[in-house]
């Protein structure tokens, strides 16, 4: 049975790592629903947040294969209830009185207004950003873009820090 | 050898010098203990070759005839010597010619360091002459790779490459060096690498796992140990023998695990797999415990996975955490180098003997002997059979030679009937099944173990896949013994056509060249045998000849390899005919 999983992987900041990580998905024919990557809170360490739908057995093997990459520090897998996830969506919509009314009612943030269009921002779950898109559609959406999901782990343990500490101790010893 | 190496290193370490990048390549290879390089020059690697000119007395460079030959030779070298095999090639076609070898080395966990030239850094991404995105191409076939664009980064990158290639589960590593980095001058600093933050090749051993494994072993009545190449790679042969001695458990080997224990060991019950021995396959479903030691449950070993070890608990001793539960669920995983985990396990198990259980394996062996082995080794029919050639060659070398094989029927026959006394005596392409591997791998094996005799078994198909390497044997005077089992067929494919495709021999017949003339053209001694009675003297002649030798044996055209587990069947459904 396919379920949603959130993979977070931490790697050294090296050229070609995205390719290394996506290769693991390609050869197992697992489609990536969403992928975001940026520097993590620790300078020099990159964080990947990857959302996939797959079965529990496959996900375990997949994460091990990601972690097996020499430049990957650690990879973890979570279920949706173990994380807080959000994404940002931006909408470029034709200007009209009715759009502005809707924007006020929905408490949507306005990023830019000019004569022809208005740029809106919505943060939330995918369903929420999608719902707003459906609402705006009748008024003419010129562009719609989603950031992909990012996630914060609820657990009290900071798994990456634990790993880094353990490695530091190995180095000292 | 060792002391001169270390004094050399000490002398070098104390002085900072300015080197060109290409000199830095060579100096770093020397510091990593490299004595042999397999390579082929070309445009973007010419600075390194120029530097090499001054090091000919300290580094043995083998000029191959094709870059695929270089990497398979490096693999053969690594497998027998336990040291990483080193290759140097040029960019573009030189580099892409090594891709098959990289894939092969990754599958079979062979430590390789490959240095490829690359176009100048200002040309990168411009489709320059002989530019390929080699780091991109080799991502999926290396353990690690990187590109170096500055001379100052060369020593560090190479030192890291050697650490990664050899540590943990070994594998191939590529360092792609731009031409300008080879030419640039930079201060030379070398430091051996033994730590990488993101890479932990020796995970901590979990005592709880050991305790659980010991408990299962002590309870088991019908256990079987499955020996993989991990024992050889971990240099754990002694530890394995101690474990077997105390536990009394019978042991079977995977193809790559062959030679980890001597073939005449009383507890050794043969080879696993599709064309392995009858006993370890047929008894699989009776086992109540399988102890996998440094092996990865390849599909050629498991057959139908759902039925593999169907009544058995599984203990998996393995250094690569990604192998645990990948194919077969491990009731007790034991992560770590088997050199360390095996003794811990041996300590905790009860002394036992499984005489009756082993007698059952021996009874199965007797069935196989009568049905398969005896007719294969001592045939009475008109034509020479592959098995008798393998058997006689193995005997002629007192079962003490290094066996190298190509891929196909001859590979299976050789691994079934060659016998081993010492570890690191079997070089074959297991996971990838690369035809053309054998000839260059034999070259590398002979260079990696010069004091040993190296015997290659090769089919007429695979021989012609890297036939050009006879030129390397000629130029570098490499005394390998080549036994060509010529059936004028792509034998293994023909066998499948025979068994599963209604004998429709679609493009598997070979109209072969005159191998004698080819040998002669390369200055290699040659004899062809067609009659059984000529075989023993021909083998003796090959053995006594000081140089390289090609012994062509015309074997029965349509012999099939048995026993056989049909693809997709349970291993206990192994067929004797
Ligand atoms: C590079 C490559 N191409 C194709 C194959 C498929 N293949 C496996 S065995 C075999 C036949 C080998 O024939 P030969 O070398 O004559 O050896 P024999 O089986 O007769 O001993 C072929 C074509 C392969 N393993 N490798």
Give the key terms.
heterodimer; A: 173 residues; alpha+beta; Alpha-Beta Plaits; 2 domains; five-stranded antiparallel β-sheet; four-stranded antiparallel β-sheet; 5 helices; 34% helix; B: 577 residues; alpha/beta; Rossmann fold; 3 domains; six-stranded parallel β-sheet; 24 helices; 17% strand; binds thiamine diphosphate
Q: What is the CATH architecture term of the largest domain in chain A?
A: 2-Layer Sandwich
Can you identify the CATH superfamily of the largest domain in chain B?
Thiamin diphosphate (ThDP)-binding fold, Pyr/PP domains
- Biggest interface, residues from each chain: A-B, 23 and 21 residues
The share of residues in helices of chain A is 25-40%
- Percentage of residues in DSSP E strands of chain B: 15-25%
Named once each, the bound ligands are:
thiamine diphosphate
Please tell me the overall pLDDT of chain B.
96
CATH architecture designation of the largest domain in chain B: 3-Layer(aba) Sandwich
Give the structural class of chain B.
alpha/beta
CATH fold title of the largest domain in chain B: Rossmann fold
CATH class of the largest domain in chain B: Alpha Beta
Low-pLDDT sequence parts of chain B: none
- Determine Rg of chain A (CA atoms, Å): 20 Å
Give the rounded overall mean pLDDT of chain A. Answer: 93
Give the spatial strand order of the biggest sheet of chain B: 3-2-4-5-7-6
Number of helices of chain A: 5
Number of strands of chain B: 20
- Can you tell me the overall shape of chain A? elongated
For the termini of chain A, the CA-CA separation is 45 Å
- Quaternary structure of the protein: heterodimer
The level 1 CATH classification of the largest domain in chain A is Alpha Beta
